[in-house]
Amino acid sequence: MDNFDVAVVGAGFAGLVAALAAAQSGARVVMFEGGARPGGNARIAAGMFIATESTDALHAYIPDGDPALQRLFVETYPQVIDFLESHGLPVGPLEPLGNARVVRPMALGAAGARGEFVDRLIACVHGAGVRIESGNPVMNVSPEEGAYRIDPQGVRARRVILATGGFAANPALLAEFMGPGAQYLRRRSLDGASGSGLRMARSLGAALAGDMAAYYGHTMADCPLDQSLWQPLTPYFARLGVLVDRTGRRFTDEAISFLEESNPQAATRSAIDRYWLLFDERIRLGDGVDIGIAHRLDWLEAAQAVGAPVVIAQTLDELIECLGVDGVDPHGLRAELAAYHAAIRQGTSAALQPPRSAQPLVLDRAPYYALRCVAGVTATCGGVAIDSLCRVLPAQGEGKVIPGLYCAGVDAGGIFGRTYGGFLSWCAVSGYRAGLSAAQSA
Ligand SMILES: Cc1cc2nc3c(=O)[nH]c(=O)nc-3n(C[C@H](O)[C@H](O)[C@H](O)COP(=O)(O)OP(=O)(O)OC[C@H]3O[C@@H](n4cnc5c(N)ncnc54)[C@H](O)[C@@H]3O)c2cc1C
Known about the structure:
Layout: E1 3-9, H1 13-24, E2 29-32, E3 48-52, H2 55-61, H3 67-86, E4 95-98, E5 101-105, H4 115-127, E6 131-133, E7 140-144, E8 147-151, E9 155-162, H5 171-178, E10 186-187, H6 196-203, E11 208-209, E12 215-221, E13 242-244, H7 262-269, E14 275-280, H8 281-285, H9 299-305, E15 310-313, H10 316-325, H11 330-346, E16 368-380, E17 383-384, E18 405-407, H12 423-441
Parallel strand pairs: 1-2, 1-9, 2-6, 9-18, 10-16
Antiparallel strand pairs: 3-5, 4-5, 7-8, 8-9, 11-17, 12-16, 13-14, 14-16, 15-16
Bound molecules: flavin-adenine dinucleotide.
The site of flavin-adenine dinucleotide has 42 residues, from helix 1, strand 3, strand 16 and helix 12.
């Protein structure tokens, strides 16, 4: 039987960084990837390494996240960017993102197509002497004489790092943790995230951490979308518009999250199957309003080209009428928009139910638009409990850790909640930390 210091389960961004950090620290590392090739979701990501200026600012934005992990995230980010760059993985300059946050983009490939960056990382991992076995999913990890046995590979490792990407692709787990709204979720990430890391960690006695119903995701057009369009067609500007359900009523404070990640979650929590994003020409053009991440294509044209269900009208009355045909109660919608606009004009939108806490915009510039939407899940936020060395914490035994077991990336729960601070950065930070911790202790 092969013996290793460290085995990494899952070769997404977190697993690859973990393997590289562990191998560079002198550990003998093996990696198993269930999919046909390593890389995971980072290949199709926008490639933005989001950071926050301070732990306090991050916690203010994500109050339901674990402060210790948030500290790890903020303090390790600069080191991890240096680590990537020192391996010939270029990262662009800091750009402001709002909400005391900044972003540094991968400087290889384009948003939505980051294969080049990921392939260079994989080359570094190979170069560090790591064996990567693709198409070889791990089914079980069990303790054996002070180490772990990994099956069906039949390999032994003193330390194991779980990095299988969470459970966004497992409908049963989504339903277990998110309730009936999970049935309406559309997946906005690759199909590898089957929850196997979570299952294996639980079978070894791990605790869960974070809000298991929370996820990072986006509002998506209610039409078939090729994965190459998930990122470019994301309506990041949804936080500026008005979101209504079939009754015509608003169901969330559209503007509380900077990347609009709280909007699909609100739909899931209320078990809403479809919802409509209403916006006007000013929002579409980003004229005098901060649309956040700019689209590198004409969003409307691209959406229409793939048959996204967009209604365009010259007046709000006409829009309401068209949405009536699409299944939205016109009386409810008319009343809702009247109350919404009146509150904005009076400066009382924060007192609406639900409130509109930021960027209150009256829809008053024709043409008017409505996109029929579904909630899309990219990555789950609850997961395996870890400490700030990325050691897995047991469900029982406060102050203890599960010896030799580590977890990184989306598999590790608790750092984010209903709002989110950047999974690529978190994967890099937690992967780096897990790799170093596992190698040093091995
Ligand atoms: C369209 C899109 C755009 C995005 N843009 C950004 C962005 O700009 N900034 C940002 O911060 N985040 C972004 N994200 C999110 C980010 O890319 C992902 O959350 C991150 O890449 C996840 O990395 P991971 O390693 O935790 O998991 P994954 O990428 O899911 O990798 C996990 C790997 O484990 C493998 N695996 C699963 N089970 C097993 C098993 N039993 N045995 C072996 N292998 C297994 C899977 O096949 C997979 O390859 C985006 C995501 C998408 C989809």
